[in-house]
Structure formats: C-alpha cells, structure tokens
Amino acid sequence: MPNNVDAASHDYTQEARAAILTAVREQHDFGGWLAGVLSSAAAELGSSDSLIAGRPGSWEADLVRHLVKGTVGWDDDYLADYKEQLP
To answer: Fewest C-beta in 10 Å: which of 14, 47, 59, 63?
Structure first.
C-alpha cells in the first residue's frame, strides 16, 4: 500500500477501491459517475472546495477541483442539485 495511506484509512480505502472497480466494470460513463459521486459528497459537505481542503495546492487536488467544478459550476452554482442525488 502506498505510503500516503495510513493504517486508520485502510478499511475505507479498501472499500472505496472495491466500489471503484465495480463501477469501472459496470458504468458506461465511469468519468460521469465519478464526477457525480464526488459532487454528491461535496454537496453533503457544503462546498466543492471541502473535498480538497487537506492539500489544496497539490496536483491531485487540482484535478479533483476541475472534475467537480466542471460538474457543479465554478462557483458551486449547481452544487445543491447533488445534495440528495446519487448518479
């Protein structure tokens, strides 16, 4: 397991990996599915920026920012649309 994954996150990391593998195999539009799931999580947290608060300057955070803001709008204009909706 990569060094950036600590022991406490092991359980949910394994569950997330399994869910992603299932989605890759079953979703026709995996990218759209992933964008929707991340947007739904951001809506639950209150903003798309909350997803990247831990490392906002990293290249990974920048890619997540682009994916989610491309879905919900650059000012979170459509974030509320994802509050109780999962793709």
So the answer is: 59
Q: Which two tokens stand for residue 62?
A: 């920048």
Answer whether 79's CB lies under 8 Å from 43's CB. Answer: yes
48 CB contacts (<8 Å, ≥6 apart)? 39, 42, 65, 68, 69, 72, 76, 79
pTM given for the model? 0.83
**pLDDT tens, position by position, 33-75:** 999 999 999 999 999 999 999 999 999 999 999 999 999 999 9
| Helix 59-72 × helix 30-45 angle, to 10° | 90
- Rounded to whole angstroms, how far apart are CA atoms 15 and 6? 15
| CA atoms of 82 and 39, how far apart (whole Å) | 6
Phi, psi of 83 (to 5 degrees): -55, -45
